[in-house]
Amino acid sequence: xxxxxxxxxxxxxxxxxxxxxxxxxxxxxxxxxxxxxxxxxxxxxxxxxxxxxxx
Length: 55
Prior knowledge:
This protein is mostly helical.
């Protein structure tokens, strides 16, 4: 579901950024979102509830 929402909303936000900041600078949004995906893959997806067994 995140892919659907991100793929539908991110281009709109990037369009507004491109109009205000310039075409090339709007790609910093993409870099920030990829950075968040990296964070989630490495740190954010860890099991913080130790009561739930993960096998």
